[in-house]
Amino acid sequence: MAAVSVAAAIPRAVAGAFPSPSSENSKRSHFSSLQFPSELRTFGIRNQRLNSKLRHRTLTLVASKAQELSSDLDEILDNSEKPVLLDFYATWCGPCQFMARILDTVSSSMIDKIQVVKIDTEKYSSIADKYKIEALPTFILFKDGKQLDRFEGAMAADLLIQRIKASL
Which residues are 146's β-sheet partners? Predict the structure, then answer.
């Protein structure tokens, strides 16, 4: 069986599709009658629907982890000796990934002043709902269980440090 490459088929399609200028067809009609070889036509997209059935999944393990984390988080926020910076993020979020490196830098430079807690909003949506997270990344700074500051979006490390210090 002889294989026909797409690269070889295209010149034949183009050469056969456009009539010579001296032909009877008008310019308008030759554009509406382009013909491609059958090798290319088989790759066309047909009007097919993808039938996917909704699957109901139980997420009891994740829900119980979220409840455990929520109660642990409340305990951390209430009893921490240092202010706590919550970082609400998602793995698919580009600015969140950018901020991950910056948070590592900020956390290590302010290790004696704050504690950073990262919360994946996809895994712990109940916690994200509790704090009304509508944009990512979102940072909430707590001291003695009380919210001091809340800000959203990516920023440079020096700006983040200034914002934290101004709030404390």
Answer: 143
SS3 85: strand
CATH architecture of 81-167: 3-Layer(aba) Sandwich (3.40)
Q: At what angle do helices 157-167 and 94-109 cross, to 10 degrees?
A: 60
Structure tokens at 121: 């909003």
Whether the full predicted model's pTM is greater than 0.90, yes or no, is no
In this structure, the chain runs to a length of 168
Pick the catalytic residue from 93, 99, 102, 161. 93
In the residue annotation, 93 being an active-site residue is answered as yes
Domain ranges of the chain: 81-167
Q: In angstroms, rounded to a whole number, what is the distance separating the alpha carbons of residues 104 and 108?
A: 6
Q: Which of 69, 84, 90, 96 is catalytic?
A: 96
Rounded Cα–Cα distance for residues 167 and 96 (Å): 22
**Residue 70 pLDDT class (50, 70, 90 cuts):** confident
- 103 flagged as catalytic: no
For residue 53, the 8-state DSSP code is -
C-alpha 55/C-alpha 12 separation (Å) is 48
Structural element, H or E, at residue 167:
helix 157-167
